[in-house]
Q: What sequence folds into this?
């Protein structure tokens, strides 16, 4: 759809087609191929060895963003807690949303 719109506006479709090819290649190498190459137990379906990942993040990029341990809260309780917190804490909706965002980030 966007390719057709781009062509109707007079631009070359080559750049859009290259972008589509790059995106589909990345998706295949990052998501599809690792699942295809993993070894599974035929009886239980449990993963015996993880799939091969062909794309790796360079160490220079990893050094820029130190790895942190993250805890993911239970979505059900977080939603209820956040709603109650938003109703009771701040009368101004923008302040409420910003405070909630800060709490979620921390």
A:
């Amino acid at each position: 759809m966007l390719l057709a719109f781009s062509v109707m506006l007079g631009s070359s479709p080559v750049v859009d087609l290259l972008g589509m090819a790059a995106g589909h290649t990345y998706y295949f190498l990052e998501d599809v191929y690792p699942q295809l190459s993993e070894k599974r137990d035929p009886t239980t379906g449990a993963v015996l060895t993880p799939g091969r990942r062909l794309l790796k993040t360079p160490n220079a990029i990893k050094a820029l963003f130190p790895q942190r341990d993250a805890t993911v809260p239970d979505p059900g309780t977080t939603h209820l807690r956040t709603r109650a917190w938003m109703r009771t804490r701040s009368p101004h909706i923008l302040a409420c949303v910003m405070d909630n965002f800060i709490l979620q980030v921390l």
